[in-house]
Design brief:
Bound molecules: guanosine-5'-diphosphate
Mean pLDDT: 72
Largest sheet: 7 strands, antiparallel
Helix content: 40-55%
Low-confidence stretches: 1-6, 130-143, 268-336
Number of helices: 13
Length: 408
């Protein structure tokens, strides 16, 4: 990846004891593995630089083994210097005292090197009491309450111990937050969304743009998604309910499935290969477009209707650049093709997806009546896209300017 491209991406580090669930999180979030498949994962044994082609730059580190702060050759400056957020995973089903000790040690070492680092603690595997959880969700609410109380206690315990410990060490100013997560539901994606949002300096601008878009187009909810991970990096000011988040994230899956069957819609396919074949995994959704049929450099198939369990999908992909030799990211980035899709659901809701850049897609929820003015929506979305380009372009320009100044 080009340097400026790496720079613009939020950098994350995932740490925790062995078997706490790091690889599972990585596979489920970034590689579309189903949660049950993670039961058979080998434990992480080496630093895992996962060069995923996502908006998010992501690494996984393991305890014990890789992290020995007392080893003089251990280069904490290099490790923590560039990281935006350090996510520490704690297995809530296990005795978490050792994990807490490691967490405190890590926070101290990392904070010394980089006081800007944001610490995020995932109290993980909270689906623990899975049977109760299910009963609680579908019927009698008592077990659910019980589980809730248990979780709250666990969270309070972990949070309290941690803040006390850090205060004792004189580190009360460390930014540290706690989340309850599980790979068996959307909680892991939602936690990541919150984590990532803190790392995006342009967030207020993006939110503002989304607000303007919604207000002027009658859109009920708009999310800006990182396509590969299905983490949303920004949304408009209206409240997020998990149902609308889930339906939008499912839409990405639907589009990915359709595009892999029909090979036309342009969207990243993360079902191909896991870490073992990282090279092959470098595809992004722009590159994927180059799988379009040969000899159709300028085709526009807007008539593909596919019936999907009670909803009607119209997948429309424009591809104006089908140069087979052209595999470089820079090239695909500069071409003017994009993914676009609309799903009309039986309940009168319309899902509207539009590619924004090679990592990001805009997904909007709106009423079918509102969608009758599709021209207006298309136009406003186009304006939104252009504004987004400017936001990221400005950041790049700003960085170059600062570098030039520093060199003088
Ligand atoms: P790592 O060593 O930290 O990379 O841990 P792994 O990812 O190998 O996970 C260890 C075990 O925890 C695996 O058997 C996973 O299936 C399981 N696991 C991971 N996440 C969850 C979760 O959210 N809930 C439950 N119940 N199990 C999980």
């Amino acid at each position: 990846l080009a340097d400026e491209d790496r720079e613009a991406r939020p950098r994350l580090m995932l740490m925790g004891l062995r078997r706490s669930g790091k690889s599972s999180i990585q596979r489920v979030v970034f590689h579309k593995m189903s949660p049950t498949e993670t039961l058979f994962l080998e434990s992480t044994s080496k630093i895992n630089k996962d060069n995923i082609h996502s908006f998010i730059d992501f690494q996984v580190w393991d305890f014990p083994g890789q992290m020995d702060f007392f080893d003089p050759t251990f280069d904490t400056a290099a490790i923590f210097g560039e990281v935006g957020a350090l996510v520490f995973v704690i297995d809530s089903q296990d005795d978490y005292m050792e994990a807490l000790a490691r967490l405190h040690q890590t926070v101290r070492a990392a904070y010394q090197q980089n006081p800007n680092i944001i610490f995020e603690v995932f109290i993980h595997k909270v689906d623990g009491l899975s049977e109760d959880y299910k009963i609680g969700t579908y019927g009698d609410s008592r077990p659910w309450l019980l589980l809730n109380r248990l979780l709250k206690n666990t969270q309070r315990d972990i949070q309290q111990t941690t803040t006390d410990e850090l205060a004792d060490a004189g580190l009360e100013n460390v930014q540290i937050s706690f989340y309850l997560t599980s790979i068996y539901d959307h909680s892991i994606f939602e936690a990541f969304s919150k984590v990532i949002q803190k790392l995006i300096p342009q967030l207020p601008t993006l939110e503002n743009l989304l607000n303007i878009l919604c207000a002027n187009s009658g859109i009920e909810k708009a999310f800006l998604f990182d396509v590969i991970s299905k983490i949303y990096i920004a949304t408009d000011a209206s409240p997020v309910d998990s149902q609308s988040y889930e339906i939008c994230s499912d839409m990405i899956d639907v589009i990915i499935d359709i595009s892999s069957i029909y090979g036309r819609a342009a969207i990243g396919d993360k079902s191909q290969g896991y870490l073992e074949d990282q090279q092959d995994h470098q595809e992004d959704w722009s590159q994927h477009q180059q799988d379009a049929p040969e000899g159709h450099p300028d085709y526009d198939d807007s008539n593909g209707h596919h019936h999907l369990q009670g909803s009607q999908a119209l997948v429309n992909s424009n591809n104006n650049n089908n140069n087979d030799d052209d595999q470089s990211v820079a090239q695909t980035n500069s071409s003017n093709h994009e993914a676009f899709s609309v799903i009309k659901m039986g309940n009168g809701t319309v899902l509207y997806l539009r590619e924004v850049n090679k990592y990001l897609a805009l997904i909007c929820l709106l009423r079918a009546e509102t969608f009758e003015k599709q021209g207006l929506i298309d136009y406003n979305v186009q304006c939104f896209k252009e504004a987004m380009d400017q936001v990221f372009e400005l950041r790049r320009a700003e960085k170059t300017r600062r570098e030039l100044e520093a060199n003088q």
